Amino acid sequence: MKEFTVEELAQFDGKDGRKAYVAVDGKVYDVTGNSHWTNGEHHGTLAGRDLTKAIEASPHGLSVLAKLEQVGTLK
């Protein structure tokens, strides 16, 4: 698996045809094809970032991660 820096992760923002990746607890997930992540955005949250704090505060919590493909880790 690829190890991403914060700067590399930011390139995967889901805009202009780019893939959309998010990091949670040091793991990087692909949300590109997820219907909840249109153009790299989910309820005001943006792809290409570490969303650990945001997902912990979300109503669904970490349970949604089981449905996503892990594509790497965050340095």
Using the coordinates shown, work out and report the CATH topology. Answer: Flavocytochrome B2, Chain A, domain 1
Elements, N to C (H/E): EHEEEEHE
Overall 3D form: globular
| Low-pLDDT ranges | none
CATH homologous superfamily (4th level) name: Cytochrome b5-like heme/steroid binding domain
CATH secondary-structure class: Alpha Beta
Q: How many strands in all? A: 6
Which strand order spans the largest sheet, edge to edge or round the barrel? 1-6-3-2
| Overall pLDDT metric | 95
What is the overall number of helices?
2
Quote the beta fraction: 25-35%
Describe the biggest sheet?
A: 4 strands, mixed
Q: Helical percent range?
A: 10-25%
Query: Rg to the nearest angstrom?
Result: 11 Å
Secondary-structure arrangement, i.e. CATH architecture: Roll
Structural class: alpha+beta
Number of domains: 1
What is the first-to-last residue Cα distance?
Answer: 12 Å
Pfam families: Cyt-b5 (PF00173)
Domain Cytochrome b5 heme-binding: 4-75
InterPro entries: Cyt_B5-like_heme/steroid-bd, Cyt_B5-like_heme/steroid_sf
Protein name: Cytochrome b5
